[in-house]
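User: For a reading group we're discussing how well predicted structures match intuition. Take DUF1523 domain-containing protein. Before you show the prediction, I'll give you the sequence so everyone sees exactly what went in.
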Amino acid sequence: MVYVKWAIILIFWTAVGAFLHYTLPQRDIARITDTYEKRIDPGENSWFWAQHDVGGDPNTTNRDVFFIQTRGANGKVMVYRNEDTAWSWPPYFKVNSSNLQAEAVDMKSTAENPKWVAIRHYGWRNEFLSIFPNAVRITPVAGPDVRLIPWFNIIILTVLAAIVYAIWVRWRRFRQRRIDPLLENLEDRVDIAGEAIAERRSRFRRWLDGRRG
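Assistant: Thanks. Here is the predicted 3D structure of DUF1523 domain-containing protein, as structure tokens, for the group to look at:
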């Protein structure tokens, strides 16, 4: 049971960590190499695509999606989608995908004359599942070595840690006041019942021995 307990705990916190890693914003420094628009037909990976753009027809199964191609200072290529989130999850309330695409087009650059930008996004990139992180904001930066401190994530994670700790403390106090005494009382009753049964068995055996003798 101990292994099952720790397995459940590990699975739970792994799921929480994956959820936060997907949802919380991240920032990459890169230069934009190209932008394009592509017709998308979400299938089994539809969970990793946003909803239709604000004002679009929600009944259509496919739609045009903006994409932003980038290359980092280390040469790594990354492709971002550029979709509205509107009022859906995650709560970025993004409704400016067209404006963001125009900004991305204006910031395109070459390796000879690079323009470095910080791309704020959420989500994952997976070639096998054909999923892309969703760009939320593009900000020009001085160079590829600019240090970006994730203050928003630090605040959110600190608040969540404080909430989890407060819940754990209250649960521990409740368990010590209410549950542990009940369990101890139950264990005492079980021990008493076990001793009584053992005593009766001993008497019964002595009685049988006396009858046989």
